[in-house]
Amino acid sequence: MNLGLLGAGLVMGIAAIGSAIGIGIAGQSVIGAWKKCYIANKPAPMTLLAFGGAPLTQTFYGYILGFLFMKPAALANPANGSLYLGIGIASGLAIAFSAIAQGKAGASGADATGETGKGFVNYMMIVGVCETVAIFAMVLSMISLG
Question: The dihedral of CA 137, 9, 98, 57: what is its sign?
Fold first, then answer.
């Protein structure tokens, strides 16, 4: 068994689990914010969807790292399988936790924006900071594969 290929699959799977959790967290608040708008007879801002969908990008980072970088490396160097497995698990967890944090930040941003109609860009900046963790994890993992 090529442990590197297992690592490539795990980074994608773990990242996707984090995305799903983050989307679930943020999505609940987006729906709640829309509900509050409807109750107050205010228009429901569709911009809140950005908060709910933001954690989805971590799934792409897991795919890019796992299948575009780790899989070819694992096939070319099966002797490094344990290393690639470790990178896959550690990177997948870092990306997943970034998505979960992003979902929590997005939930707060959706609630605040829905209630006040203000601050969308400010709140989205925090969501972006959470995203940066996943990007760093992906890029630094790519570098370590070389």
Answer: positive
